[in-house]
Amino acid sequence: MVTQFGPHDRRATLAGFGFPKDFYPAGRLDHDSEGLLLLTSDGRLQHRLTDPKFAHPRTYLVQVERVPSGENLLKLAGGLRLRDGPTRPCRVRPLPQDPALPPREPPIRVRRTVSCAWLELTLTEGRNRQVRRMTAAIGHPTLRLVRSKIGDLTLKDLPPGRWRWLSEAELRRIETSWTVSPSSPL
Fold first, then answer.
1. Catalytic site residue 30?
2. What is the CATH number of the domain that holds 112?
3. What's the CA gap between 111 and 120, in Å, rounded?
4. 143: which of 8, 35, 73, 113 lies 20 to 30 Å off by Cα?
5. pTM above 0.85?
């Protein structure tokens, strides 16, 4: 699926979900990624969720080829230089076991001779295909990418292709928790 409402020549879009008029994605997921996406009709909230100066955390579950060394995890955490400039420091944690996720359609490619590992990455910026480019930069291409959290909002038990309204308390937390602090580490 593509994170847009207009037509796309090859993939499904958000238009088929019956969202209320004037709702737009506050952020994006590329067509190979899965997970949490916030939509809003509030322009001020959309700005707060997409402007890099607010530096709100986004957490991803990332399946990568091979098991990264401690040195490579430190490189990720400290920030990397990509073609479009340095990334901010982020939180990186290897997961001790595979996360409980629904099957992916289509499934990822599996190579019997190449191991894989799951990482949890929390970023405070959202460049185009950033997580994929970061893991590739340390020699561990991303196989599967799932955004599991935005701030303290999580997917919980929401199945793929489903949506729900945020509670008033959740909306208030968004308004008050993400402040302008682009250079502060996680």
1. yes
2. 3.30.70.1560
3. 22
4. 8
5. yes
